[in-house]
Structure formats: structure tokens, C-alpha cells
Write a structure and sequence with these properties.
- The chain has 189 residues and is an alpha+beta fold.
- The protein is 57% helix and 19% strand.
- The two termini are 47 Å apart.
Length: 189
């Protein structure tokens, strides 16, 4: 009975830890939506959106404002000053929010599917073969990424000769999942 209660308590705790960043994002989006809906109400009355959309006029105007806000900040992110500012803010977030780098990586990999372009490889080192991801091949050498086992978005980068690299016959997503299981199921050749 005690083991069952301990298991249930652990499962609830794990669920809370998994959902905590999502709650944080939802709270931020809700705050943004509430602030923008006041402005959306003004814009819907000014442009007479009620005649076109009826009761959904405020929602439509607020949605347009939020999308416009994201677009403007996307444009600002391309400017040099704002890139530096973004790097500074992110460095502070990395220090203040535990797991921020992991969730940022998950979001970016969900939006841009660049993970699939990387090729899983074995790299021969003085200590044996290490699993890695091939990032780029240039002539006789290649850039490889050695991911950590638990958090595969973090790791080391190395430049190695091509004759020390053996390509695996699995995709990058499967490779990273197998790494999280401490390498169990990785192809050995």
C-alpha cells in the first residue's frame, strides 16, 4: 500500500514538473491576451469590425494585434542591436530559469525541423567510439556534435578527420531517443 502511494505521489510530482513550463507559457500568453484585448476592443469599434464579425470582433482584432506584435518583434530580431539585446536577455534567462535551454531547444526544433538534417555517427576517439551527430562535412574533416545523455541539446563540438567517422543507419530523432536510454539499442556498426 505504501509503495502504491509513493508511486502515485512520484507520478503526480513528475507531472507537475513536466507541466510547470507549459503553465508558465500559458500564463504569459493569457496576460498578453488580456492587455491586448483592451486595445483590440478599441480597434474593433474604431474600424467597425462588429458589423463584419459580430460578437467575435474583439477576438479577431486582438488576434490581429498579437500576430502584428509577433511580426514586429520578429523583424526587430533581425536588427543587430536587438540581436545583441536578445542574447543578453537569454543569457539571464539561462541563469534564472532552470531548464530554459531545454525548452527553448524543444520549441525551436518543433518549429524548424533541422534535427532531421543531422546524421548520427560513431567517432573513433582514443577512449573508444563515441556517438555523435554529423553537423557539416568539409573536405577531409567534419564538424560533429557530441550530445549529453540526459539533455541532448547540450554537448560538445569537435572537428575530426572523416576517416574517424562511421555513419549509422538511423535517423537523428531515433538516435537522440536511444541516447536518453544510455545508448541502449544504438547500432554497433
Amino acid at each position: 500500500m505504501k509503495q502504491a502511494l509513493t508511486r502515485i505521489r512520484n507520478r503526480i510530482f513528475n507531472g507537475m514538473m513536466y507541466l510547470l513550463p507549459l503553465f508558465f507559457v500559458f500564463i504569459l500568453l493569457e496576460k498578453l491576451w488580456m492587455k491586448m484585448s483592451a486595445l483590440g476592443k478599441f480597434i474593433s469599434h474604431y474600424f467597425h469590425f462588429e458589423k463584419l464579425f459580430g460578437k467575435l470582433a474583439i477576438v479577431f482584432a486582438t488576434l490581429l494585434l498579437v500576430l502584428l506584435l509577433f511580426y514586429v518583434f520578429g523583424w526587430l530580431a533581425s536588427l543587430h542591436f536587438f540581436k545583441r539585446l536578445n542574447v543578453w536577455i537569454e543569457s539571464k534567462l539561462f541563469d534564472l530559469i532552470p531548464g530554459y535551454s531545454y525548452y527553448k531547444f524543444q520549441l525551436e526544433s518543433g518549429i524548424t525541423q533541422e534535427m532531421e538534417k543531422r546524421i548520427p555517427v560513431w567517432v573513433t576517439t582514443p577512449y573508444g567510439k563515441r556517438p555523435a551527430l554529423l553537423i557539416e562535412e568539409k573536405g577531409e574533416s567534419s564538424t560533429v556534435f557530441f550530445p549529453n545523455m540526459k539533455e541532448t541539446s547540450v554537448g560538445d563540438i569537435a572537428w575530426v578527420e572523416n576517416d574517424r567517422i562511421i555513419k549509422m543507419d538511423i535517423d537523428a530523432k531515433t538516435f537522440l531517443n536511444k541516447l536518453k536510454m544510455q545508448g541502449k539499442g544504438l547500432p554497433l556498426d
